[in-house]
Design a protein that fits this description.
With 202 residues, the protein is an alpha/beta fold. Helices cover 28% and strands 26% of the residues.
């Protein structure tokens, strides 16, 4: 059965992709949880139109990529997410979330597969997420993952880390560079292990 994913699903695909899945997995897990929609011809056409529109804003030369990297280097992405008392998220912030937020706030299209996040962000904190805008053009984007409700100031958030690749200090963003901060209440993806369990039951 073909579906269009509405969220990143581990071992299945990324948001916006048209994938073939087991019918039981779709009907019992993906569709009821609104993690996917049936891939009708109209829905597939809408996905292609959206991708074509965004493709116009993708860097095609080194000069365009350098300009985009300059903008992203002064940008702060901020995700407000549900988290437990220990700072662990009820879900995660994925490369798709980062790419979508860059597009929403800056209208810059980046390939989510070229966002250097070895695993989804699962804890509140401050992160430097490296993005490859073009061949040999990379930039680190300051990303803040904060708990909903704003009970903790951004300065009090710990510096986050990735498996085997801790991010650079937040100070890596030039202190005198103007910063355009954005905010979003993220609809984070379901934990990957839940998707795996449902796939096993299908």
């Amino acid at each position: 059965m073909q579906v269009i994913l509405l969220a990143d699903i581990d071992k299945t695909g990324l948001k916006g992709e048209v994938v073939e899945v087991n019918r039981g997995f779709a009907r019992n897990f993906l569709l009821p949880r609104r993690l996917a929609e049936v891939a009708t011809p109209g829905a597939i056409a809408a996905v292609k139109r959206r991708e074509a529109q965004q493709a116009q804003f993708e860097a095609r030369t080194v000069e365009q990529a350098t300009d985009a990297a300059s903008v992203l280097g002064r940008t702060v992405l901020r995700f407000e997410v549900k988290a437990g008392p220990s700072g662990v998220l009820f879900g995660s912030v994925t490369t798709t979330d980062v790419a979508d937020e860059i597009w929403r706030t800056r209208k810059i299209r980046v390939d989510r597969r070229k966002i250097d996040l070895e695993e989804p962000i699962k804890r509140i904190g401050r992160y430097m997420v490296e993005v490859e805008v073009f061949d040999d053009v990379r930039v680190k984007v300051k990303t803040i993952v904060a708990p909903q409700g704003g009970l903790v100031s951004d300065e009090e958030l710990p510096e986050g880390g990735f498996v085997e690749a801790p991010p650079a200090p937040v100070a890596a963003v030039a202190a005198d560079a103007p910063v355009a901060e954005t905010a979003v209440v993220a609809d984070v993806a379901e934990p990957a292990d839940v998707a795996e369990d449902a796939a096993a039951d299908a």
